[in-house]
Amino acid sequence: MNQTTLTDSSTEIPEKANKTILLAKHHGFCHGVKKAVDKTTQTGEEQEKPVYVLGQLIHNQQVINKLSEQGIQTVETLDQVPDNSVCVIRTHGASPELVQQAEARGISVSDATCPDVRLVQNKATELVKEGYTVIVVGKKDHPEVIGITAHASQIPNAYIVAINDPKDIPQKLENLPKRRIGVVSQTTQMEESFFDMIKELAKVAKELKVFNTICPATFFRQNAALELSKQVDFMVVIGGKNSSNTTHLAEICKEQGTQTVHIETYQELEGNQELLAAQTIGVTAGASTPEWLVQEVTDYLHTL
Ligand code: SF4
Q: For the whole model, what pTM was predicted?
């Protein structure tokens, strides 16, 4: 098997490789995703009842396909889950209301919410209880943000809103109390965007309480991608096209001026002329990308 060099280890190049291939130190499955995939697989093996995952367990179609081959189906809504079956709550979490609806129908809930996402739900709830108007820095339609908002909104008189762009602050806060503002972040938010948001919120709030809830796994992958993109001619970022954290990794590499492609499988690299011309190639993968997909890509790169 070909060997790929890690960025913080020796830069020994495999003898037969035509190009130098560097793998980001932090890449691929984070602990939350690994736990969710293991738990779901185990539930599928142990349960006699049919197992359904509500929404994509993680944003990676290849993993979803493998679960499907094991008989674990992904559905979009709770209506599609039959009564008295098993329903897995994915890493992004879900609203408490949805869990209650499932249990009321005799559906066993297997909760694979990532502990780091659970922490954000708890912090947002804590801020609401303390009387802050709560801002979730993130995309309002992202399942994780929907879950965070739903948890905190259980508290009476909660003021909570998701904002992803500092320019939207005046409009989003128009009818909300602005004196005391509490902030949490979607776990996969880019650090720079989060800091920009805090800077702007400081201009409108009398009191600002901030929990930086960007997940360390995200942070480590972003930093490793940034450092690696400075050293190479071409970056390959592997992961679901619908994965926020993978998309952010690709954006970070592009912002360095490095030619970058965001792919799901190695086949998307075939015929790429810029890649063929590159001498030094960096590889990284989002937190929802399994190692076997990374291995397929590095194996392909070693054939060039
Ligand atoms: S990226 Fe962080 S928050 Fe998201 S699943 Fe992984 S460990 Fe959890």
A: 0.81
| Segment (H or E) for 212 | none
Give the whole-angstrom CA distance, residue 86 versus residue 81. Answer: 8
Instruction: State the distance from the centre of ligand 1 to the C-alpha of 9, rounded, in angstroms.
Output: 25
Give the C-alpha separation, 154 to 294, whole Å.
41
**Average pLDDT estimate for 226-246:** 94
Examine the pLDDT at 188 and tell me if it is beyond 90: no
Computed over every residue of the chain, the mean pLDDT equals 92
* Whether residue 122 has pLDDT greater than 50: yes
Query: For ligand 1, atom 2, which residue shows the shortest CA distance?
Result: 215
Task: Compute the distance from residue 81 Cα to the ligand 1 centre, in Å.
Answer: 26
CATH of domain 31-114: 3.40.50.11270
CA distances from 230 to 8, 27, 161, 221, 223 (A): 14, 16, 36, 14, 11
Q: Residue 215 CA: which ligand 1 atom is closest?
A: 2
CATH number for 5-29+217-301: choose from 3.40.1010.20, 3.30.1660.10, 3.10.28.10, 3.30.70.920: 3.40.1010.20
What is the SS3 assignment for 27? coil
